[in-house]
Amino acid sequence: MGNPNDMTTNVRVINWVEAVTKLCQPDKVVWIDGSEAQLKALRDEAIATGEMTELNQEKLPGCLWHITAQNDVARVEHRTFICTKKQEDAGPTNNWMDPDAMREKLKPLYNGCMKGRTMYVTPYCMGPVGSPFSKVGIETTDSIYVVLNMDIMTRIGQRALDQLGDSNDFVRGMHAKADIDEENRYIVQFPEDNAIWSINSGYGGNVLLGKKCFALRIASYQGWKEGWMAEHMLILGLEDPDGNVQYVTGAFPSACGKTNLAMLIPPDVYKKKGYKVWTVGDDIAWMHIGEDGRLYAINPEAGFFGVAPGTNEKSNYNALASTKKNTIFTNVVLNKDDMTVWWEGLDKNPPENGIDWLGRPWNGKTSTEKGANPNSRFTAPAANCPSISPEWENPQGVPISAIIFGGRRAKTAPLVYQSFDWKHGVFVGSIMASETTAAAAGAVGVVRRDPMAMLPFCGYNMGDYWQHWLDMGEKLGDKAPKIFNVNWFRTDDEGHFIWPGFGDNMRALMWILARCNSEAEGVETPIGTLPRAEDINLEGLDDVTIDTVRELLSVDNALWLEDAAGCEELYAKFGKRLPAELASQLAAQKERLAK
Ligand code: OXD
Ligand code: MN
Question: Is there a catalytic annotation at residue 125?
């Protein structure tokens, strides 16, 4: 298995791996070259030790099942840190500690933590290999599960080192499961040093360091310094019957259906006419200004790390289809009868002879407890997705026509509206919020501000981040994508959703693209430009009347004024780092609303 001297002559890489080895003291160091032979050996080893379970190779070829420790099933925002030299550079929305102090605190935890274990050195490329916009990271880890997930989510091995060459521009990611000790779990980003330290977790978002830690937290900082953007956004292409494809990106907080939107299947009326939706990415977009002055996006990832519960043939056919081969399932139910998997919301046939996410025998016909963890996941190769875009690995990315923000709001936000211009659009993104649902613990209907859906993922002061958005708009000028906001979650007075969502969300996308092409009317309101009810195509949508659409598009000025107080509270946290432009956008919006 890979010998460093065969794989790279990059002295910085070699020296860094040596330093990590000295600290963690593994019995053995294995460099991941990414060859199928090496990956097969790792799968076999994980199966032999029981770390992973091989699933039915006829029904689910190449698929594996894994359960994490009971205390380790989600990202841990309260233990996630941005360590910049100055606290104000991390900003009021991030946990912060001095970088040297943090390193001194964590070194004893890493010290000797891999004794008796193997350390895997995993080079990986975020973005298509060969793209000028891709970036390389190296993750050291004591987990085969991590290596196998990284193989799906990124481009690992020799090709990543080849992309890096002798450059120093690589993210140093030091992961160790250690003892999976909750009390000593830390997910730490050092943006000024291109480094990530993650310890005492084996759960995806905390340990697949290419994803949230690098592609969002570190990359957002890099984008700020280098003049591009790393965003928590899906990327999709909408093809019209003439074969023209226009691309949009969309930022939504968790539990708002981002993966579903990325893989949307058009309603019959559009399908019959020849419209298609193409998936470029479901979670992260890296965006650069292209030579023609437009904004281009690449998906830095190569797979989907999707939430399993609720995913079924109807809710997301394409996501489910993506999981039929070479997929890793984490914390879902194992069906022992046929060695397949199950989760709540998959179908009405839970296994009777199952193993739940806690590793206990579980009978879906009699158990009153959930079999799959609500945050159980599939890690599936993007190439498996039936709707994957032919352009998804285009090294230049795809040109973006519209940026869509969204959240879960019962009453305030209308189905769709357009910002007046880029600056107002940045304001719209900055006041993004979502209401908590009954599905999660805690009070229902509590508004959580989640600017640009980046609250847990912005690797620097969010005030500077907003200014960076404003600066990008200046650079893009009239080539800037148009900015919109959507809300699929309006309810009636009984709390029932009044918009069908899922594939029918395409009806809002159609208005969005028509606006981008100057082909649709709009009505100005205090919060932005809305469609008229008749601008939303209801063909084939028997359950939704034009009156419902009117309700979906209604703007209650009093509610919005109330909401503005929450925005003020958020903005106040930033003091001088709040861009003056945003303060005046809020003041102007309040004035329009009060009129
Ligand atoms: C994710 C998240 O897992 O945003 O993508 O939490
Ligand atoms: Mn996400």
Answer: no
